[in-house]
Fold each of these.
Amino acid sequence: MRRRRTLVVATCAVLAGLGLAACSSGSSSPGSGSNTGSSNSPSFNAALSGVVNPSTTKGGTLTFAMSSTPDSFDPGNTYYDWTWNISRLWATPLVTYKSCPGSCGLQLTPGIATGLGTVSDNGLVWTYHLKQGLKFEDGTPVTSTDVKYAVERTYDRSVLANGPTYFPTLLADPTYPGPYKDRSKNIMGLTSVTTPDAYTIQFHLQHPFPDFNYVAAIPQTAPVPPDKDTGSNYQLHPMSTGPYMFQSYSLNTGATLVDNPNWTQNEDPQAKQLASKVVIKLNQNANAIDSSLIAGDIDIDAAGTGVQAAARAKILSSPSLMKDADDPLSGFLWFTYINTKVAPLNNVNCRQAVEYAADKTNQQTAYGGPYAGGAIASTVMPPNIIGYKSFDLYNALSQPSGDLTAAKAALKACGQPNGFTTGLAYRSDRPKEVQAAQSLQAALARVGINLQLHGYPSGTYYTDFAGSPNYVHQHNLGLDMGGWGADWPDGYGFLDEISNGNSIAPSGNTNIEELNDPVVNNLFAQAANPSLTQAQETAIWPKIDMQIMKDAVILPEVYAKSLLYRNPAVTNVYVQDYYGMYNYAVMGVSTSAST
Amino acid sequence: MITFIIRRLIMTIFLLVVVSIITFAIFFLIPRLAGQNSYELAAQYVGRNPTRSAILQMEAKLNLTAPLVVQYWHFLVGIVAGTHYNSGTSITYCAPPCFGYSFRSQQPVWPQMMAALPVTASLALGAAVLWLVGGVAIGVLSALRRGSIFDRLSMGAALAGVSLPIFFTGLIALELFSYKWQLFPNVQWVPLTTNPLLWARNLVLPWITLAITYAALYARLTRAGMLETMNEDFIRTARAKGLRERTVVVRHGLRAALTPILTIFGMDLGLLIGGAVLTEVTFSLPGLGQFTILAIQNQDFPEIMGVVMLAAFFIVVANMLVDMLYAVVDPRVRLSLWRCSRSATCACSSVPTTAWSRRWTGCRSTWSAAARWASSASPAPARA
């Protein structure tokens, strides 16, 4: 789970029990998805469905600003949304996402590979073929050993601590120490990644994992030449395979990127090299970023989490500013877990009473309103997840302030006609969540459900409190607030960790509602059947979503949104659905207005 | 003089060690007393979703399992003798003063602080000139025109200046002068060595914003000091000898009133060079203040320790310089200083001070105490 999606951890250990065979991934011709959206003239939300200011003009300086610092610019050591997005300027992974607006941007397409991975019959070996002729910024050819080494180095968490841990969890030799310790012995020693030739790489898994192509799309597969690796210092100058390369980088201050002379558009159609220079300013005051954006001093707020409250009010009240703004879904859901083991919520009717009685409008307001907070949710999967299907079992959309009649009927069916008392856990250091908790308390009180609020620090919320089933049971925490976003945008990526019975863990639990519904579990097993087509697999996700909602174990509140502002001088702007922010890999800047 | 400086330097080292112990204890000892173990501490530095083995690797690398005394000793040795660091592919030597490597970025702390220091120094020194000149001038004029419209207006403005927080005045200044009127567009840090004009242009707003707060305080201090000084007997004597009013005010009144101003100036400047946090954050200046905020947000012990030590160092040094400057402000101090530093009998309680000097300076050091004693014991000799 990337850093902005703050909830929990998408550890893959649970996958061991799946016993799945991989599904075929299909293929896509390189470049087929590049900028396929229509061009839109600047208007509010124009960049959601089309390309704003399309241009092929070369030149100018594209300036990003960021209110904090990256966890790392090393593609093997980063776990932030925005760094994954911006790293495409200098790092091309094996597989990437199509550069195009709308749902098209959720689809995978080859990066440095010639196609998506192919899987062996037993689902345990994934094979990728690399494009020939690719070069690093210094002209050195990119080979399969560079990709293997890039994966190897992520194993040593004492050197590269930040990135996701999918490879050690999924691949066959999880105890490999990484290439840094006893280097002469361990370099190229990861036996679960083999390189039959200079342009072929194979990943040997412990267990079948049908979503492996999504794992291959993580920046950690961007090649790293072993002789150029400088360990923890590699972040200062990663060897580029993207359209730009580092000219300078001052930690905590910013970076300047210039054209990578060894990058070719033909081999990397998902990125562009329009600006002559890219400047990334770090540690900028968040309010000053907004003002600078509006003044045209910078081009894009790299965080992609939306403008601050002051600028939001300014933009929303000014048509001339609003036409340069967009309000995309981030792919993140704010919701409340309803625990199935805490009485009386172990009765589905009591859980449904909670679903009916919640006031979604107030929850939306608590999270920031319709623009900065999000859209009222009625499903677990947000609309920008592959497999999303709209439905509304508990009248969240038709009666957003709550269906009290239905709630009372559900309470009666539960045997608690006068309501009941249970605990509500939330993160006390998050003002929006505090407000949402208080709002939910007031809403449920209308039908006699008395919530006792328990605030916890966010740092240990999922390890010691809400993520600890024992603690939840002992403290009668029937409801637990949370949020969730997946590392990749399909139903498996979004639903598995929070609803598969296999995900329940004694600590760091992600299935906080402790749902172990055979229907849900079987649907996950079906989705892993290698004989399914992509469409058949995708059709399973809304069924799981529906079943989770029938079980009433998750109270969806809002599909998170953020109000983004684009400098009118920026060209080729559109929201990439996968990131829920602008696609940084393809932007240019009008040379007449560049900063 | 030399003895004095040596004693102060020894005191400085002792003070820095005490500061480092306190900081170390806050970071490592208190969490441990509260139940946190080294494994949990290491888990903070392994990113998201760490496996157990990953946390153990980090715990070993950061040497968190060693006794606290050993950890602290390694830290101290690193500062004095340097240390070696494994970046994965190579072992690099971190030369003294090595404040260690950031737990987060795994980069050495000292070069980062040195990169940030020119920013903070540029900001603090520029603003200090503004507030010292502006604040003292306004204070003197207000005192001389006590009760006038100028006095009332300037003191009212001073009150507002002290009251308005920098993050407010800074944002207003940016909004008006940078974004709206574009007088100082696109404010950003430009090193002095790169382009002196741009350096100055980009620092005008931060200087003024920072100076407003301090100038207001200094204006009020100066006014109060001048009002008291100008009623002293030696001022009357000077006037009776027929000196020009300007000479009386500047050479006798202001000079005597400057002592406490100098004291607080040293403290303020030392603090600011240690990091002008609010101003740097407001104007996105990559100085020590912003570095401090990041270090705290990241709970990055080596960075926190480094910046605390550096700030403490600047405060101590600035105070030492101020003590030495007393002699410049008031030549009569010199003899007393020698006497005082040799005999070491200048205890605060035994030194006569004016009520005003006690109020603003307190008892800080033998030298400053001697200075106050000297200035109050005998009036400045008036030259006819």
Amino acid sequence: MNLLDMIILGFENLWRTKLRTTLTVIGVVVGIGALTSMISFGTGMQKNITDAFRNNDLFTSLTVTSEKIDIQQMMSGNFERDTIVEDAVPLTDSLVLAIQQIPGVEIAFPEVTFPAKLRLGNAETNTTVQAVPAQFGEFKPYNDLLGGSFFSHDSAAAAVIRWETLRRMKLVADDPENPVTLTAKDSLDGVKIIAIDSIVGKNINLISAVIHLPRMPLNPIRVMQVFEEDPFTEKVTPLRITGILKRSSPFTSNIFSGGILIPMKTADQIPRVSFETVLDFLSNSENRGKYQTIHVRVNEIKDLEPVRMKLVEMGVEVFTITDQFKELKRGFLIMDTILGAIGTIALFVASLGIINTMIMSILERTRDIGIMKAIGGAESDIRKIFFVEAASIGFLGALFGLILGWGVTRVANVVANTKLIPQGEAPIDLFYFPLWLILGAVAFSMVVSLAAGLYPAIRAARIDPVKALRHD
Amino acid sequence: MNGTPEIPLIRISRLSKSYFKGEVEIPALRDVTFAVNRGEIFSIVGKSGSGKSTLLNLIGGLDHATSGEIIFEERNLSRMKRAELALHRRFSVGMIFQSFNLIPSRTALENVSLALTFGGIPRRLRKKRSIELLDQVGLGARLTHKPSELSGGEAQRVAIARALANNPKVLLADEPTGNLDSITSEEIIALLLALNQEKGITILLVTHDQETAEKVSKAVIRLKDGEIVNR
């Protein structure tokens, strides 16, 4: 008896008890549906985050800081000396240049950010300005803008604006890839959809505050004198918008938080209060470096470790996303395991259904089994016929279970997106069905079904044909 | 008679079979010895409970003897493992029962075909061979009928076709006419006789009907309470 014969015989037998077979298969369908939708959520999350990291070249990025900052201490407002190490290497322009010379480093530049107000026509918003080198236009995600292009040189009077920043100004740039729809509330608020072309090339006014302060005096009475005159004045810098960044997804982990990007040298020309001076101001330190952070990008992922070693030798603190990613991966593994376990419970319950169905089937077919033995069916044949029946239930269950799981995740995804899109997020796919999940689900379902069919099959094979032939 | 009468097809010596009901031993066969030659129709006559079906089940390899030997073509059934007995049932014997024992959910063709499936006949040859077998028993026109749609005589013909599927050495017929009216019974007996005469197939016939046994067989044994009482 070959496999095809057994499969045909198995299906014939299942088909004869359609209702019971269907109900048993539904049990497996629910189990596999639960299992695959759960795991596809886990893998979907992981894929979204990994993709976001990759799309932003975060695996080739390092962040250099000067001191070991005890974040918890700082969060609790403690800026005492023990939270900031005094003899740390200061981050200066010469250090940036030195880092740039390390083999494998593609680019190194200091983080320069400052708060400013943006004005485009009548629309205004407050944001953080981020200065980046023009060379950055070559890297992900800045090489792929929603519209326009990255600024061409470091002293251009130009800016690349974030889609979200425009939206805060009630200007929704049309997104051909993921068409934007406005809610009723948006319309009431006066939010408008505008063409990308009508933004790119326009001038935007960057209004920075200028503070005229001496160093913070140690004498509290003199602090009052500092604030006697209004130390703030506004400075307007017109910049041409050369490009709009793509919408970010909830998973985008962008190292740059700025709402608008401007060239490094242009930023140097803009008078402003920078966060550095505020920190300096607070820490009251005389010998600080010029920068808080230096961003480094390496040529390839393999350059990351050597460059990190070099930087550590230089005495600075280095942070890479890879460190966190390892932790994250472990987290995902735990999440997948928990989600998988829940699905497996459902499948386990379904396997009890299979056992029940198969035993019922043996009771009903005792005489048939006796006949099969009498005309030459070996125990192994009978066993295999029942195994094939159990495996067929598992296979059908997996097939329709995958369809159910996929359907459920599609619906869940639509629901999630209807909540996210009105908040200005780009549509996301929360779930992911990789090939290994599909094949794994089928294999797992069949293994569970075979295990469930084990006892019934052995029992069927051991039926005494003499008794079975007398059975009614 | 053709074949080689000096070497019997089946030699049974001092065969006993007991069933146990709890601790109580119920003997079904006691010390039975006889031989069946190739090509003959051998009849075993006895009343219900005389042990004749038990004897047939032992020869058919459906059951193990308590003691004694069944030598089938020089092979000792008592020493066979379960898998070997399955091969014995598949290729050496063809069984026919009083209650036909067709699988109710399968058509006449499928019932015959199932035996061929166990016999390892390739799928493409099975249908053709099943039709030939059913034609041979005069059922060429009832191929797609299920057992419930067949008369008793027709059902027994399907069972005979199925028993012949893998060219057995012997047909073991356990009261094949027990559920049939007298006319149909005669037809089935005639069919068995024809198979014996035309194909030379050995038949071991179990019946309670002394008259039929004596009509078709030269060799008749009578069983009573599990023992051979005369020849």
Amino acid sequence: MVASNVLAKPVRAFGGFYSMALDTFVGMFQPPFAWREFISQAWFVARVSIVPTLLLTIPYTVLLTFIETILLSEIGAADFSGTGAALGTVRQIGPIVTVLVVAGAGATAMCADLGARTIREELDALRVMGVNPIHALVVPRVLAATVVSLALSATVILVGLSGAYFFVVYIQNVSPGAFAAGLTLIIGATDVIIALVKAALFGLSAGLIACYKGISVRGGPAGVGNAVNETVVFTFMALFAINIVATAVAIQITL
Amino acid sequence: MTISRPHSQFPWLKARFRSVADPWNHIGMQTKFYGRTLRYMHYGLIHYRVELIRIIAQMGLGAGALIIIGGTVAIVGFLTVTTGALVAVQGYSDFSELGVEALTGFVSAYFNVRLIAPATTAIALSATIGAGATAQLGAMRINEEIDALEVMGIRSIAFLASTRVIAGFLVVIPLYCVGVLMAFWAARFGTTVIYGQSTGVYDHYFRTFLNPTDLMWSFGQCIALAVVIMLVHTYYGFTARGGPAGVGEAVGRAVRTSLIVSAFVLVMLSLAVYGQSGNFNLAG
């Protein structure tokens, strides 16, 4: 009996997650859309994410361009450091930093909020009053996470490229014109669109995982803490897995 | 009803001063906590050895639902497998545009060691053992267990925070080894098995450019990152307040802060280690 429980628990969690995800997708197209909740959530996620985004983008792009420029100047191609910076920022760092911030800042706060409501039985109260919590709480949150990640990834790319520019030009002494000219050598509009699509996918899955973990909390304050911890772990794992698949698909499209 | 209270002198000026001084004081308190945690490390090592071993076991395996999916080791392994595979996917396709896809092995040896393995391990550590520590300590603070420890005469910082920092320091050693091996393996598997490059070509460039000194530095970076991440996470857990939602918020704030701090530490260490010259020779 114990063994069957150990096996059944993760399977049941998967099933619960998928059923909630399906309910959410259906709920997105059912008329009374919770605009007010959507706007306040989008504003909330954007507010908690913007400063960490900027602070996380700058070191990662600086590190990447630093390592890349070492390599490029070794083969006498330091003028192409702009190409390297664009490649790294648009293709990988942009979407990944967005993920880290949306998962680390937005999703955790969402999960903590929903989890606290769950253990105070507010969701049950909503159900009693005939309000569907998926419709009233989950749909706006998932959409807010998606929209904000889309907006954030654009910010990340802009800030990352500016940071790389200052670092490469003023510290590693590459000429600014060569840096700017190299930016669009490999990376074009298609890559930017793919980066935005990736970021939207990441936001969607982070929102879904956070909401599922939030509404299935059990066991008091320690339960909320654990749920938030699991949200972070599962979102990071899901996002890295999505990233590799999305990158492979994107390469098939662009080549 | 009106409440009469003494008129405050220069209210605007005082409010401005407070808005500058409060964050500054907060930084001071945080620094004091870190200093005390580090200072009590030997105390934790000598007096709370049983607790230390318990925490190490718990961190290695993970807590709650994380055990079911294989614990911390499996999560770190999984994240580094995906980033290693990313090297194969991205590196191979970009290099084959230039016709030098033979150099994918070099990308694995260079970027995995210098950038991807430390960064991914930092992210994984902060998500798993870091966030777990904040959640635990936060729940203890909310349930007033930390106050109970103090009343019983146990040094709470040494007992809870210092032991966790030591445990993080010890746990990261095997975790980093698993992570970096997984990243190498995934990059090799992706390039040779999936994209069909011959293993001889891959291994030649991989071995030529794999610099053992760089690998040691990357290992050192990971250990430093683990200590910093555990310090940040224990602080936010230790100072959690505001009921169940407060614990969750503390976890979120801790993850955010530790990601930023670890990124800055990584950049600073990389600049310090590799310097202006880069410690890299392509031509041998």
Amino acid sequence: MKTIADLEAIRQKTLERVAYRKEGDSDIRVVVGMATCGIAAGARPVMLAFLDEIKKRNLNNVTVSQTGCIGMCRLEPMVDVIVPGKEKVTYVKLNADMVPRIVTEHIVNGNPVMEYTIGAAEDK
Amino acid sequence: MDFYRAQVLVCGGTGCTSSGSGEIIERFEEQIVKNGLDKEVKIVRTGCFGLCAAGPVVIVYPEGTFYSRVRAEDVDEIVSEHLIKGRIVQHLVYKDKNHEEEHNMALENIEFYKKQKRIALRNCGVIDPENIDEYIAFDGYQALSKVLTEMKPEDVIKTVLDSGLRGRGGAGFPTGMKWKFAAASKADQKYMVCNADEGDPGAFMDRSVLEGDPHAVIEAMTIGGYAIGASEGYVYVRAEYPIAVKRLEIAIGQAREYGLLGKNILGSGFDFDVFVRLGAGAFVCGEETALMASIEGQRGEPRPKPPFPAIKGLFEAPTNINNVETFANIPQIILKGADWFKSIGTEKSSGTKVFALGGKINNTGLVEIPMGTTLREIIFDIGGGIPNGKKFKAVQTGGPSGGCIPTEHLDIPIEYDTLTQIGSMMGSGGMIVMDEDNCMVDIARFFLDFTVDESCGKCTPCRIGTRRMLEILERIVKGQGKEGDIEKLEALAKNIKATALCGLGQTAPNPVLSTLKYFRGEYEAHIKEKRCPAHHCQALLNYTITDKCRGCTACVKVCPVTAISGVVKEKHVIDATKCIKCGSCVEKCRFGAIEKR
């Protein structure tokens, strides 16, 4: 027999899976560029790394989605991290090893990883 | 639990299942495994989304992209484009009639959903109905927890009473009052019954709720059981709803497994269990006394009231009966409060109502709107208007018990009382739209034909009276109507309404009375001029060939009774004595030269 606490536990656990079907969620969005150029440059391992990291940390306010080519193919794999109410941050030339830092510093703690951003890449 | 980056929701309601959504799900599962996406993309079979006309419906989250009329062969493209590359497959995205240019429509931006407010249907098309955990994630069984830990039975009844919730089966009796009466009856054993014997032609609200959100009904019945002091509940559902029955049974099994049904629910000491009883589909069994007789194993016939079920119902014990949609509102009312519910809708009819849109309308499907919405908004904004540029003529609400509402009343707000005032009724929520090609006399005949078939025969007014009315109507549509037929119909209708035993007979004359009220001219044209103004009644039609005829002989070849004759390149003629009025020649003629009159 389940108790009310058990129900709450089931609710929390399942919520992670169904969260973005709920109305009015102000989620953090991770958008991975996955056109042919992105995929060729290795966007899939990057996306999988995001999924992995999000799962590990039990973040249920993050959605990961894909988008097409935005024209700067030389900078792929590119990822936008959009925190509601904040300016969009675009990361470029990512690989899977760079992802945990973005998740920890930016998504969890709110501090964008400046050296991976498009601004830093363009200055070089 | 795995984190899925994308979820593909496929409608598994009866409408989409019959247009092939099962095959689509299989194909998706096959394809995501093939592309190695099975750890990141989840396929979910949901209940009805409502827009059945656009079925089979597929929604892809997190974007919320709404794909319509998806075929199994389209699945590969959605997987390779959308799921792998994140590119939306534009040509499969649902397009609004008025916004053809806008693509990438998310569900909530579509005209069909914009004016809707979903309470009873809130989980339909959103959760997997066969998974209790998903229901719980969407606040399921929280209302029950709240009731069992924080509320006394009288508090529950007061909340329902204050919310102003009225019976969604059609009659609109305040639900809180019903519960109060049943709670006041003293007995060792009481019952909570759910009426899922949805019988109106064209109505499928209850089926969709049971298919899409069965746990909501179970939770509400348990709450009701606690409120009135019942320990057992029955869902009486028709056997013609196999998907609904299956999902309900799965849901009951899961609730029992979780201890949400059975003994000592959530450790509160309250016992309650729900059982399913299948009906054979007799319309009269939707009447509560007949329904209870049928559950008991007796012949499904009504009995006089009083005693009302709250005093003496199922197995002679005090019983409360509510409709599926009524129950589906309960958990939300408990969680969000009576004031929240009262703030939606109108003063006398609070909350929302689900309607099944059918007939001559573009967006056939299921809609839930706040009370007070006008018929015009439902038919033209949500329903997308009448197909093929035809003119709206009337809308039929309330099924065989309701009536037809003409153009001049399109702007009245929908409420129990306003609909009754104009000679129709809320009914369970079937809404059949008719255009200029529908003959109103024939519509009345159709509904009466239905009630004559479905009359149980127990009382004379219904058994014989409705048959006499049907005979008169059949005579009229065949062009054999006589002077005085209208008056006879009116007298019969009045007597049947006053004397029939149950709701079926008492409301059976309504379709005739309302069409007589608003379309008396059509009856008179049939009787006096032997003419059907809508060109519908076959017996009153005459086909003639006009001067537009070029003598191509196409009609001659298609006529099954060789009633058309003429010389090539000259005007042809139809022999009215031979013509069987099948209409084949009209369809074949490329010059629009054949007229129906």
